[in-house]
Amino acid sequence: MDVYRLADEVAAGLDGLEVPLRVAVTGRVANGPGEAREADLGVASGNGKGQIFVKGQVVRTVPESRIVETLIEEAQRLAERIK
């Protein structure tokens, strides 16, 4: 998946979220984890899958087709904990 398209889809899915979160969407498994760990929520994608990070920890690896859905679910969980 194109990282720009992925970022746009994630941004659209998080539109209206009332809690500020730093979200990192990276398209490389090689250096993406470092960037994703620095954010509240992140994904390092590549090779047809994405590693999902929450507060610097990998919480799961999902197929490319589920990255956006999973990031939105995790963002909502984080938002509930922050409220």
TrEMBL record:
Residue ranges occupied by any IspG C-terminal domain in the UniProt entry: 2-76
Alphabetical UniProt keywords: Iron, Iron-sulfur, Metal-binding
Pfam family, one: GcpE_C
GO BP annotations listed: isopentenyl diphosphate biosynthetic process, methylerythritol 4-phosphate pathway; terpenoid biosynthetic process
Alphabetized GO MF terms: 4-hydroxy-3-methylbut-2-en-1-yl diphosphate synthase activity (ferredoxin); iron-sulfur cluster binding; metal ion binding
The protein, known as: IspG C-terminal domain-containing protein
